[in-house]
Amino acid sequence: MKIGELEKVSGFPRSTIHHYVNNGLLHRPEKSGHTMAHYDDRHVKRLEAIQKIKLNYLKTVKTSRVPLDHIKYKLSESYSLVKSDNRKNRKSAAGKLSEKQKKMKNEIMEATMKLYSNRGYYLTNIRDVAQAVGISPPTFYRYFKDKRELFIETIEYVVNNFNAETEAAFKTEKNPQKRAIIMFEIFYEHYPKIGEIFNQLRSGVIIGDPWAKKRLSRLYREILAVLVKDIKMGIKKGNIKPVDPHLLAYFNLAINELAINLISMDDTYSMDEVMLFVGDILNQSLLTEKGRPFELFYKPRKKINSVLED
Questions:
Q1: Pair 272, 300: CB distance under 8 Å
Q2: The whole model's pTM is what?
Q3: Are the CB atoms for 203 and 179 separated by under 8 Å?
Q4: One digit per residue, pLDDT tens: the chain, 310 residues?
């Protein structure tokens, strides 16, 4: 909506809206021209929250002016710029898209990932994305409501591709140790995108974005869901020592990320050598006597430097 429409919906004059934007209480609108800016429902929700904070403050303090610092504090304490994810509605809407429209959405998300790697989420705007894909900003809004919805769907796009490949590979492999290796190899292949998503959300956590913290936690759970399930099964069968399956899954992912970062910076070791070293440590520490007969194997599926003897 334009500034005049936001005035009518929120009840705030444009001078106040501009004042809040300039002082960081409202996020900046998307620019579609030198003098044209578009606001969305997040601005409305934010202004509603500000109005409640002001009214509560005026009930307890004899003044006609509410300090901006007080509003900022209250907003950071209890209000997020982003509403809870309405995934059901988004998936329902996605199901109505034609194949051509789905292809365009995927192109937008692929271009977005490249922009994030160069500029990061917080410095990438709608105009950048539209220009990268070769469409106009109004065309962009046919596919995504705003910048944050684009980010949410890009995360889901990356995670869904990872999970789909993992599930397909697992259909033909039941051995839990081999499944763990397959998962690592798929994670390695998808890491350029998954890692970028991790980086953008971690950046949000560092600057205090509560939504980024919540979404990063959920992303970890989604990525690790299959591994946690396999660990629980291994513990139940007596192949893995009784440990917290969630902690072990997080620890496993952290080591995997570290290994990928290591070989990207230093070619002293191959991925095979790193995996064999890490796998040996984990197996010696966590496998039971019953589970150890399965540990001495490693035959990479693809994209690994060499093939080791079983």
A1: yes
A2: 0.58
A3: no
A4: 888 888 888 888 989 898 888 888 888 888 877 778 888 888 888 888 888 888 877 777 766 678 887 787 777 655 443 344 444 455 545 557 788 888 999 999 999 988 888 878 878 888 889 999 999 888 888 888 888 888 889 998 888 888 888 888 888 887 766 777 788 888 888 888 898 888 888 888 887 888 888 889 988 988 888 888 888 988 998 888 999 999 999 998 898 888 888 888 888 888 778 777 877 787 778 888 887 665 444 444 444 444 334 4
Pick the closest to residue 292 from 282, 278, 305 (CA basis).
Answer: 282
Two structure tokens written together for 231: 């660990």
